[in-house]
Amino acid sequence: MDLVIGSRGDSGGASLKKDSMAYFFDRQSVIGLNTNYYTAFLWNFDAAAGLDADSLVHDGLAKGKMINPIAHTVPQFGRGAYNYLWLPVPTPEGETGDNWNDYVVIDKEHLEWDNPYFFVYKYYEAIGDGKPRLQSFFEADAAYAALTVANKNTLRKLSGVEGSYSANSFEILFSLHYLGLADYE
Question: Residues 55, 19: contact at Cβ < 8 Å?
Answer without folding.
Answer: no
